[in-house]
């Protein structure tokens, strides 16, 4: 199923449709401020398991609505908080120590989790409406052609059997997020992407 949600004034009805899929152990593909991404509810062990099968080698991140929500699920010291506040929402994944509220299924063998607050209004609206973070992994794979990462209709064509819903939020980006590890004494750049650290 493909549903269109516009960034300006996202439709409440369409958002409810996405949330219904997520609350019923479903997996979706949704737009972010970098590439399109897979997403499922942090509360759904079944959907997290399905996502793990779909993205075998992926390290999951969590998408949050705001910084207050981040503090519920991650340990954030003052220095990390200042960096998050300066750069989010934006095309970043910040690695932070996970709290006990993050299920082991999401973490795998790690004790850290990537944190995202995308600047894309649809991504944040979905998480807000869901009322809990989304577990996420990008659709992007190095071997893929650009159209299959950026065009929602082609993404739907390719992944319709794997996910319950694809959210068309317009053309996606090709460049992934900038990944920064905030677990050490100093921020460490793990991958340069769309975001420029402030």
Question: Which terms summarize this structure?
Answer:
8 helices, globular, alpha/beta, 10 strands, about 200 residues
Note the topology:
Layout: E1 2-4, H1 12-23, E2 28-30, E3 37-41, H2 45-54, E4 61-63, H3 67-73, H4 78-87, E5 92-97, H5 104-107, E6 112-116, H6 121-130, E7 134-138, H7 147-150, H8 152-159, E8 165-168, E9 178-181, E10 188-191
Parallel strand pairs: 1-8, 2-8, 4-6, 5-9
Antiparallel strand pairs: 2-3, 3-7, 4-7, 5-6, 9-10
Number of strands: 10
Would you list the SSEs in sequence order as H and E?
A: EHEEHEHHEHEHEHHEEE
**Share of helix, binned:** 25-40%
Spatial extent as radius of gyration: 15 Å
Question: Strands across the major sheet, in which order?
Answer: 1-8-2-3-7-4-6-5-9-10
Strand residue percentage: 15-25%
Structural class: alpha/beta
Kindly report how far apart the N and C termini lie: 39 Å
- Compute the number of helices: 8
What does this structure look like?
- With 198 residues, the chain is α/β, with parallel strands linked by helices.
- The chain is built from eight helices and ten strands.
- α1 packs across α6 (121-130).
- The N and C termini lie far apart (39 Å).
- The mean pLDDT is 92.
Question: Could you give a quick summary of the protein structure above?
Answer:
This protein is an alpha/beta fold. The chain contains 8 helices and 10 strands.
């Amino acid at each position: 199923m493909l549903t269109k949600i516009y960034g300006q004034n996202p439709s409440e009805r369409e958002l409810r449709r996405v949330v219904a899929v997520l609350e019923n152990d479903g997996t979706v593909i949704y737009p972010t401020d970098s590439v399109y991404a897979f997403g499922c509810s942090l509360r759904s062990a079944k959907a997290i398991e399905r996502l793990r099968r779909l993205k075998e080698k992926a390290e999951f991140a969590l998408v949050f609505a705001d910084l207050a929500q981040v503090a519920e699920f991650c340990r954030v010291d003052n220095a990390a908080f200042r960096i998050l506040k300066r750069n989010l929402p934006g095309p970043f994944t910040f690695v932070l120590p996970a709290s006990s509220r993050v299920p082991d299924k999401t973490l795998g063998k790690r004790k850290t989790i990537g944190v995202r607050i995308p600047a894309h209004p649809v991504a944040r609206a979905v998480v807000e409406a869901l009322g809990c973070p989304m577990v996420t992994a990008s659709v992007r794979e190095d071997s893929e052609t650009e159209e299959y990462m950026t065009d929602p209709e082609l993404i739907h064509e390719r992944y319709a059997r794997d996910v319950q819903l694809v959210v068309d939020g317009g053309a996606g980006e090709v460049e992934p997020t900038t990944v920064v590890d905030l677990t050490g004494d100093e921020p460490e750049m793990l991958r340069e992407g769309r975001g420029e650290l402030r």
